[in-house]
UniProtKB/TrEMBL annotation:
GO terms for molecular function: glycosyltransferase activity. It comes from Larkinella bovis. It comes from the Bacteria. This is Glycosyltransferase family 4 protein. Keywords: Glycosyltransferase, Transferase. Its EC number is 2.4.-.-.
Amino acid sequence: MSVKLLVFDSHPVQYRVPIWQTIARLQPGDIHVVYASDCSVRGYLDTEFGQSFAWDEPMLEGYGYTVLNCEKGTPLSGWASLTGKGVGKLIDAFKPEAILLTGLNYRYDLMAYLEANRRGIPLWLRCETQDEAVVRSRSKATVRALMYKVTYRKFARIYYIGELNRRHYLKHGVPAEKLFPAFYGTVDRFERMPADEKKRLRDASRASVGISDTDFVIGFSGKLIQKKNPGILYKMLADLPEELRARTWLYFLGSGELEPALKLEAQRALEQFKVRTCFAGFANQSQLAAHYLAMDILVLPSRRMGETWGLVANEAMQAGCGVVVSDAVGCHVDFRSLERFRVFKEGDPTDLARAIYSLSTFARNFVWPRKVLENYSILSTATALMEKFSVA
């Protein structure tokens, strides 16, 4: 057997699987995906969410795949947790025209990299690495830069997910002619949803927790952890104009270690400012739409602890929310010029309040960013990855 593109992915990921499914639908038989582990399907403990779960949408349907189960200890827990045993045999079995890696995080990725080069098979890369998401010492940055410069030389094609990702590759010696756009995106749950259904879901979701039509809902979606800095939403309340604050709700979608502390802050905010809070908890993929529709804006206030993109910003815009992100969030460079997108200085609650207030003047609109997001769609990425194999 042979395929045009053999993909090596660590495990089924909810925002990558739809790419493989779309390619298989558009070009049947041209792609096969190899997973080191299927832990995200059978269920695993996510320590940052603070619970065990499996994604509730079909992750292993609609495309060809193989699960190597080359795990050592707890999968996804470190470099050696995915070993790469059996990678070479699979490459020989499928005889691909090209091999795509989705990361360089595990021994598994290194084995695919080495085995592809050993056989002279063109090697491609699409991952989210950039240089501004984490503060590093000069010595660490120097070693990291050297490793990347050596590693990237062996790739025939590198697909960048956004502007900071593109700058990273150029900085580390990748020639511009090897770089191709395949922007970060996720499934659009709202694209074919009628406007009246969006309104119905929004009204029902808000009514279920006591939010009125005139209330202003500031949302957060993700893990309640230090990296995401959700507590700054309470710190910025003092800087919101009183008229806006009086009708404000905070809406936390997610779970994590900071939840008890945030609930204490919620009680203080209620007593001091009469600001109410909804803790919606963890929501699986099929449950996300109603939560985003309930929000008016979404805030992603992450610190420089590795927020290389911030896909919740894409999801919120698909639902028509305004979005505010810190300047530590990777996508801020790509989206900052959009009408209902704001960027604030990392860790600055006053600047955050200013950004929120500027978006509060817009009426809720379900479709404002739709044209822009076409380039950040699953179809756009799938088409970009298979363009080389398309018949002119």
